[in-house]
Amino acid sequence: MNHSADIPTVSIDELPTEEYVLLDVREPDEWAAGHAPDAIHIPLGDLPSRAGELPELADDRPVHVICRTGGRSARAAAWLNAAGIVDAVNVAGGMKTWQAAGRPMVGEHGDAAPEVL
User: Fold this and answer.
1) Where are the domains of the chain?
2) For the segment 8-45, what is each residue's pLDDT rounded down to a tens digit?
3) What's 93's DSSP letter?
4) Across-strand partners of 88?
């Protein structure tokens, strides 16, 4: 079943321009290849054990959750909302759309251009 209708969702274009919290739930290799400059990285599998970090980081703001294309982030947002940890919003299209929209990206591989795996 598709419960995505119950999950608050924004497009890349609808993201706030500043002062927003972006949580990247992709795997470490995906993060290292390329991510948003100010994103917080907590892989989806680590979220249950690390979710306690989010309320302090969010500071009462919604947490925008992003992955590669929007599937994992939708699950993460649904879980965070259901657990009452933070107000989570899924970012539709994920980092693939972020990159296509020309949003800034940084990588962890030195000279290699950031990319979305």
Assistant:
1) 4-100
2) 999 999 998 888 999 999 999 999 999 999 999 999 99
3) T
4) 63
Catalytic residue among 7, 44, 67, 105: 67
Q: Over the Cα atoms of the chain, what is R_g?
A: 13
What is the topology classification, in CATH, of domain 4-100?
Oxidized Rhodanese; domain 1 (3.40.250)
Q: Do 103 and 12 form a contact (C-beta atoms < 8 A)?
A: yes
d(CA 27, CA 2): 23
Give the predicted TM-score (pTM) of the model. 0.93
Which distant-in-sequence residues (6+ apart) come within 8 Å of 83 by Cβ? 51
- Of 79, 71, 63, the closest CA to residue 16 belongs to 63
Q: Reply yes or no on whether 67 is catalytic.
A: yes
CB atoms within 10 A of CB 55: 12
Helix locations, 59-116, DSSP H: 71-83, 94-100
